Amino acid sequence: MVVSRRIGAPAGDIFRILADPGRHPDLDGSGMLRGGVSGAVVSGVGDVFVMRMHYERYGDYEMNNHVVEYEPDRRIGWEPRPGRGHPDATAPGTVWGHQWIFDLLPAGTGATVVTEIFDGSRMPEDKRAEVDSGRAWWQTQMASTLERLAEPCAAR
């Protein structure tokens, strides 16, 4: 799934917000993020940041987000894996294979087209079918995330 939005801010400003997991709950269009476990800002591929989450079906849990793409001011992406409290965390090596990616493309002076990508192409068939059945919901939440991302950029 892919959703894009033009935001009136330079790519570097937007990237700094996306690289700071502490800012993610403010941006989250799904309402599932509760906060980061550590205050560390993402600095490259291989970093892992842990987010506290809540989903009605699972309750409170954590996701371990493995950074798989990092190109400053251009692209950042991570692969979430079930963490503490998640029902799939007890299965060793559980990886769903999905990724969240943000692509930033300069669009004139002081503006950027931000594309949020949910890549579920490597997910197990049952998980992919579950996401596909809620495609409209996911896309609405992604559009809301980009709208929320535009807010701190406009306030600068």
UniProtKB/TrEMBL annotation:
InterPro entries: START-like_dom_sf. Gene3D superfamilies: 3.30.530.20. This is Polyketide cyclase.
